Amino acid sequence: MSVTAPFGFRAAGVVAGLKDSGARDLALVVNYGPSRAAAGVFTRNRVKAAPVLWTEQVLKGGRVHAVVLNSGGANACTGTAGFQDTHATAEKAAELLGESAGEIAVCSTGLIGERLPMDRLLPGVGAAVAALSPNVGGLDAADAIRTTDTVAKIAHRQGTGGYRIGGMAKGAGMLAPSLATMLCVLTTDADLDAAALDRALRAATGATLDRLDADGCLSTNDTVLLLASGSTGITPDEAEFTALLTDLCLDLTRQLLVDAEGASKAIAIEVVGAGAVADAVAVGRAVARNNLLKCAIHGEDPNWGRVLSAVGTTDAVFEPDQLNVAINGIWVCRGGAVGDDRSKVDLRPRDVTITVDLAAGPHSATVWTTDLTADYVHENSAYST
Amino acid sequence: MSVTAPFGFRAAGVVAGLKDSGARDLALVVNYGPSRAAAGVFTRNRVKAAPVLWTEQVLKGGRVHAVVLNSGGANACTGTAGFQDTHATAEKAAELLGESAGEIAVCSTGLIGERLPMDRLLPGVGAAVAALSPNVGGLDAADAIRTTDTVAKIAHRQGTGGYRIGGMAKGAGMLAPSLATMLCVLTTDADLDAAALDRALRAATGATLDRLDADGCLSTNDTVLLLASGSTGITPDEAEFTALLTDLCLDLTRQLLVDAEGASKAIAIEVVGAGAVADAVAVGRAVARNNLLKCAIHGEDPNWGRVLSAVGTTDAVFEPDQLNVAINGIWVCRGGAVGDDRSKVDLRPRDVTITVDLAAGPHSATVWTTDLTADYVHENSAYST
Asked: Name one Pfam family in it (chains A, B) (predicted).
């Protein structure tokens, strides 16, 4: 399961001592090939952590041999010295694996603005290399990248002819994570070149991880990598591979959503009737980021007025008096005004679906978010202190 | 004090029975001239309440005789019937004042998506007309427009030659109010035409009320009106008038900020070294809307990494490795990396100043916001139920 579900990969998760808790905090994923084709997508934040700047460069070559990931520190806003720390991490892994640092990706997650304790991290890389395994290492790695995640997030799928895709993730949203970073490593033993992997990864994450928006905050460290070993020799139909990868990413998205910090509701905002997919995503994101609505859902209050006021902040194509809104299937707003009886809305279940009909076209998109809770405030008030 | 500080105005605040609490809920401000010149600014939300649609039309004529304001219901997302309710309110006031409804502005605040109880509101207009007074009516009116405001917000200033400006406000932010709407009525006995009032009002609110961003949520009802009676016969220098009006609006902004729902901190985000004022405002607003930072400030945690990650979401001109951040005067981030010792930051006072130096030019702007608290979640989870 996890990143070792496909053939050709080994992984490890060890205790390097970066976390005070003594939990696993350093993961390693190694692709033994024969292919090393890889693709990546990264945070759109202009303030990028050192490992993001490094790994973006690595991915330009379209090849990744190994990924070193650490929790316990984001290595963001750490200046030139922080970048040198990332470089030294890649060099250490390269040395131990007998490779060039130019094919070693690095990911970090944790507090921003603090240097990593390299005297513990570098020995941790050695321990991880020694612990590499083709089976349990996948789960150990998924465990090691957790920060406030209460559970490890893993998934795998099998495609036509038997090739596999596996993956692990931590955090709560690629573009807008809850506490800190979303890190995700996806692996496959299918044989696809870097360009095909890049297309598939952008399509898959664009419709899944990229539409998870727990609190609207954009991390400095978000990274999603896709590594292909090609060890099955199967080159799948690209559309099939993309669909399978999308399904796996949706699975991980769902796991991230239900484990988001302090959340008591998992909210899907389905925008339908849009003039364009971009309009549907923009509306979904505006609704997902509306603190007043997120509070209302937490209070199990079907406050559709807050949905409309969020929709009204976008430049999507719609007419205010044509908008329809359903909450858990009850169309509480029709034609921009009061619709069916709001007392019929049952908001007790954890899963909540808000449907916004823009009545402007045939396109749709779903954005996922959480409610806003006192627990969220508590966890994020007390994080670094 | 309030809207009756200038000559030529009378006001009232009465109990119409719109609020279950039995508190005042209907206000009336009447300009007895000789001038009726007026200007207004409104929410940028595309989903606009009926009174906003009505009052925007009234203001196109550049003249306002009276303003009817109600709390206890926003009359937003109420369709054609809701617009007819606003029209009927204006007609009722016009009839009682012996005027045309075309010079009667209407403002509403409260829950979205519910019709107003016109059988109580229209008699309330009659009671307000009967209660009009040139002194205590100003305070009564300021009291009647409160929703969750714990105190009435009023201010007045005196200019060269003795002309006055007065004002009242409710809510917590024009473009991004906390719970519901920001409503503000400003009055003056100076003699300025509608065009001059419009220029002064846009300049004043653009630098004050428009930069108060409690929770990033954009109301359907926000309205700021400026009425001139011209009764002193003084036509002030426009620059002086604008400065005085700006100072008064800053006073009201400050009152709204410290009374924002559930807030325990009043946060000023001063952006300096910007390439343009628009850049400074964009950065200030991005920082003001970052839930993670707002939680950190609530926890008295000088988490400057969250400031940088918010700055990085904007397209303002800056280089990440040139950014400097001070929290309450301590430069905790220099050159995009760790600066002075964060333990020196004292976050115990209610007032917090976050200074962001973009190191990209001579421009600056301040945006005000609040911390994110469990009380905010509580108040907004339980509002309509």
From this structure: ArgJ
